[in-house]
Amino acid sequence: MKGEERIGIxxxxxxxxxxxxxxxxxxxxxxxxxxxxLFIPAAIPPHKQGRDIASPEHRLHMTILATASNPHFRVSxxxxxxxxxxxTVDTIDVLRAKRGGGTQFYxxxxxxxxxxxxxxxxxxxxxxxxxxxAATRQGTPLARSELARExxxxxHEHIHxxxxxxxxxxxxxxxxxxxxxxxxxYMVPDAVADYIYKEGLYR
Length: 203
What we know:
This protein is of the alpha/beta class. Helix content is about 40%, strand content about 15%. The protein is globular and about 50 Å long.
């Protein structure tokens, strides 16, 4: 593929993937004129070790179903084949090797996660290898001054902010609603809801 591509990355547990993830990805793709968004389900999210989550295979399949209708969305299973916790810096190294060093990667996450970026594994190396995009919503501002003190010019050049639509949906709420027998219609794509019910997830 061409080395000058601009690729967005949506990493996460996706347990399950929901409409908020999709809306955020499309808003960032449009705002930054990205060529595509790569959704990467984490095999063992470092911050969720020990929590009971759906299998990687279920979460991958739901992500594929959720993104199938958008020609700019792709799904990668690269983290599912790795032993141990899924660190973003390792994922970026694999993607850079596959796509070529000229490809620009934009890791999309919430402003709250970027405000805690200093706690991430090998974060300075990571910032040199990819850009970060803070999908900001009302009530969670990006801590620009703190990030500037922590990362200096590198943070200024590689941390971006894109306001995204307000959509208060969480995977936690979806799992709870399924467990309680409540509707999740419009919170997830229909194909994902059908899969959850068919496979008996979150019961």
